[in-house]
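WP5 quarterly update. Target: Protein RIC1 homolog. Source organism: Bicyclus anynana. Length: 1408 aa.
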Amino acid sequence: MYFPIGWPKVLQNLGNDAQFRQIVSNRDKILFASLSEDCFVVWFCKPSVPIVYHQRSVESLQRLGVNVGVEWKPDSSMICISTSEGHLILYNVEAQSDQTAYQQCDPPMASLRRDSAELFVKEVIPSLKITIFKEILVWDGQITRMCCISGTEILVCTTRAHLLRYRWDGTQNRDYCLDLGRIPFSINQQVSKAEPILEDNTHVNDIEYSPLVCGFGITLNDGRAAYLTAPNLKFDPNAVQGIWAQGIDDATCVRVNHKFRLIAIGRKNSQVDVFTIDEATGGLELSHTMVLSSKDFPGDPGPVKCLRWTGDGRAVAVSWEGGGVSVWSTFGALLMCSLAWDYGLSQDLARHNPLVVCSMEWATEGYQLWMVKLEEDMTSNLIQMDFVKSPLSVNPGMSNQRHLYLQADDKLYVNLDDNLTRRTKISIIDSSSDTYQENGLDQPLEYDSSAKYKEIVDDNECRKQWIVLQLPATYIASNWPLRFSAVDASGQFVCVAGRAGLTHYSCAARRWKLFGNEAHERGFVVTAGVLWWRDYIVVGCYNILEGHDEIRFYPRDAKLDNRFAKVVRVQAQVFVLDTLDDQLVVFGADALVTIYELNRVDNKGNVEVRCVQAVDISALSHPACVVSASLCRLQEPSPAHLARTDQPAAPHSLVINASGKLMMVQREEYDVDEDNNPAYSCLPATVLASCVESVWSGSGTGAQTQLSRALWLWCGVLGARVWLPLISREATRRTDPSRHTFMAKRIMLPFHLDIYPLTILFDDAILLGVENDTTLYASDSNSVFSLPFCVINRTSQVYLHQILRQLLRRNLGYHAWEIARSCSQLPYFPHSLELLLHEVLEEEATSKEPIPDAQLPSVIEFVHEFPVYLQTVVQCARKTEIALWAYLFSAAGKPKELFQECLQRKMLDTAASYLIILQNLESSTVSRQLATQLLDTALQQERWDLARDLVRFLRAIDPNDVDSPRNSVNVQQKYGQVVQSQTVSPNAEDLSVILGSMQLAGGRGRSFSTTAAPREPSPPANSTAAPAPRRTAAATAAVKRKKSVPARSDRESYSGTAEEFFIDMMIQRHARLLLSTARLVALGRLAAALDLHLVAWLAGERERAARVDSAVLCLKRLHEDFSWPYPALSEEEHAQRKSSVVPAPYTGNAESDSQCGDSGYVSLSLRAVLPLAAGAPLSPAPLSSVGEGSVAEGGAVAWGGALAEGEGGADAGEERRYAALMERLHHHQAERGDHTAHVQLRYYLQLMTEASCVEWALVVAVALRDALAVLRCANAARGPDVSLPAVRRLRAALLDLHAWTDAECIGYKPFMMAISNQIPILTSIINTRERRASMAVSRARTPSTTSLPEQKQTPQEPRLPPPQKAQEVSKQSVRKDSPITMPEVQTEPIVRPSFPPREETASNCAIM
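Structure tokens (predicted):
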């Protein structure tokens, strides 16, 4: 509830030699008295300034002794000082009403004068005058402690075991003085035998009085602790009885929590035992213990020095003699501990603690903690630490809101999202792309993002960042401190109330709305919290002018004025307010819980308030001990209510938290009044739980699930509890007419939390809380910043898995399944199942004792009911020690079977996770076999990132471990519930099972050797023409092995291992499939992910997968694959284009170096590509070698100017006119596609051009409408790398495209007409090459090694570069005179199909 923030403030001492030892506040927590041996100072709280300083004379110190204790009179009119010589000194504290203690003056410099309202302190700091009233001699030994018990008396404890009662006028009330020797002590009030204290020298060491517990809490000097009580508050010495705190023999101090009726006893063993009073026996019963865990502080901080409860009893501060301060919640949850702060590396808290506190006191509303800090030189300083607190501590009606914010004395700290409150932000971490969903084949997932969920992460962006909402200075300056705050359900409006009046804030407008009349603001004081009901502000207040208590309704949209307020007068002071729908619950000082029904009459601020019922709970608790009172939906609607919508719903139950004891009062309708309104009666109260700090109940606005109807309790160190409804399977079953049957349909489930909950998000099944954190800025102990800077972090925790486990443990699996099914849409639902499985596995697998009823089988069976079963098991295994895998998989199934099931369901990411598990359980041979199988599936599913990781995984396997089996986990059928699935035989002889029907060239004669060191291959003979590309990093890192391959040629020896060869073959097989089906986008992604060098690979596939037998279908597929738009022209434009294609006379403008319509990668100027000199060569020379200097490999393409001898030249004027036509055509091109697709197509154009795949280069150039690229394709047909059949196919492609544009796509017509002159050029090239081939055949008599490349009869034609590493292609696969050795790509010659109708698409055609 309370959390420190900022730096602790050091207050300056008035006297240099003043050594303060104690600080005590008055009843209002506004004035503080700091005491030293010879003086005391009275301080004001805000601003923290001293008001009066009083120092005793030397004569008084010698005569009466030094100061040892100080106590305030309840009305702050007197101060009592006790001395070491057994004297009491009474001082009068008089306020000088005609003047203030401090005058504010501006400096003479104009630049330093105040010009804003925040700089003016409007708080009236009283001017006090202290005078000695009386000196009293206590003839009873030394005084150990003083305690104020009423407005008229003070109790003084002496070393002679006496408790003397003195009046504030200095007289002693002898008749009611107590003697410990005469007080009977026992363990409870029912024991007939009670004995007084008979030991000598036994006296009270510490004491505190509380009228709500009707007694005193005391500690004795011998370490015992007790509780003194009497039948009435007069404390007649003959009626006082002592109750021992059992098990306490080292008590040091005691403090009483009034609201929760608790007695906290500090002990020498550094822990605090908290006792409660047993109402049955009257004895002290141990409620809980506040003890530091080894995680909080591994050492011993020493005995407890001081204890202080906050004014509302929601927190207690504890300090130790060895140093350190901590703050705990009411029932023992640790909120803050200075021993866990960051003091730097130089500080050893076990030897020296920089924060040693001997006395402390809470300020008003608990926003500051005043402390007396002891320094190393035995001096002392006053330290003030600021705190923020949850609004639930003073306004429990805010528990039904989902907004997380904290309130300070003059500001609010809000954790935001899209409005005023930030919901928890869940980051879904998944290695897969968002494009792919792992949906099972048998059963689709019920949600999308949950199947990919890996881990829940609390986002640091919103954990530490808080929106600070500063209260307006005009309001808080005169009404400090902030007391109550409330946020509406939408999170858009905030209302706050200080010492008087109220104000509210609009998040949308970012403006505060104040009272226009300050008299209205100062005329009432909010006493019972602030609530929002629809667009009204509801407050319980005290009218100062008229002197009575009221409930006021202020409309949000109207002016803040009493004229627009609806006022309802009540009989007693209002303590608690709460709302549920249109019902208002009011609890007052008369112990009446009044339920009102609210109805908004109109939009002008008129509200109808009708009293429905008043319940007297005076027999249950004292009104001051009631923490909260609210209405909750606990009773399930009957089938009759569900069938009839006109029948009113069952009345809501009344839930009351009194001193931590949660009680339920069930209401029922029994009659109607004269206005036909129902009348209600109440059943006897039922105790639901004890030690309850906070209560939450669902609002009921969302889906009616079991979690939304549950009652949530927070019990401090005892953890959280949920009172869960158990919905029957038969929804229409008749209910038992008995009145208490609904209680049998609920179950109380305890579960542990790692955070302190402040808000519950019922729809998200998340708890939100806050924790303390520190940052060190200075390590110098002399600096005021030597203590760390405190910050607050928002925390969150899921609780679904704990509820499911509790239900499964109680054999309530159906209810657990119902709850899990209702939460299956949550993004972190798989994570909850993983936590459920992980906790049970850790607990049972590490247990040293046999488990008679193991829960793991039932948890596995439960998780198996959900589609995320496979992900849950593997994620749990990966986050668990390997030693526990045997126990896990004995119930979950064999990992190999689960892996095969993942492959069948196409859950590739999950299968990859199982592969990591199998790597540690199986041999490397099995791991490689399964990884290769997964790689093949990943390539089929186009999961390129996963494929890249699998390739790296396969190449990283140590070859020396291939044949060394691992110690597999013994996964016997322990529970007989493992689902059998088909697996691959682990003793496969080769990888053909995984690679399909792929056969290696040279048969099965390949042998593997793992004993010899790797040997680099010799360079090929033609290495000067085609140097080998650089090896990739992955190939370099992989372990190479010596291999033996079938005898081929030394120049073509493969430079990688056999395993790498299989991987490369698999990658190339999938690449051929993609290229043959014209899926260039997927091919590019494969090449980028798997480092496939496309230029060299495409060169080898020129006459196979890169053949284009239907250019029209390829062009259509290109438009579809790249989302590339078709060109569209009107009929008029088409006619104009048709007439403009006539060659125009030559103009000089055509000679400019224009590159319009060029590719941008290998484009040259028109002067270089189209020479103007007569007789000059007209086409670029072919590439010297495929892949050398290519763009894909980081080089530049070198185009030569010389062509083959004997080539005929075209007229230079025709070429210039052609260039001029292209210039005009560029300005009228159709709209192109997006930039990314354009860049990708340009890149493919460059790759196809370098690889001499002229057919694909033509298709891409047509799609880009790049005329110069088409010209280069035609010129490249003259080169030796392009075969004669390829040139014929290129010419046929141009003809087909030309015909297709006439029939189907008229948008391409202008472009196709512009490039139609390339058809006769290709015809000429074909004729020339055919003549050359025939002439060479006729001259040839014997085989020659210098035959032309076009001679298919000779096997010695120029070869492509040898295959190299991941992108190499074997000679057997690229030779034109050898059959294709890959069955999966061996296809029959495909006859060019006829053009489909215009409405058909090419998406389903096979392009080979």
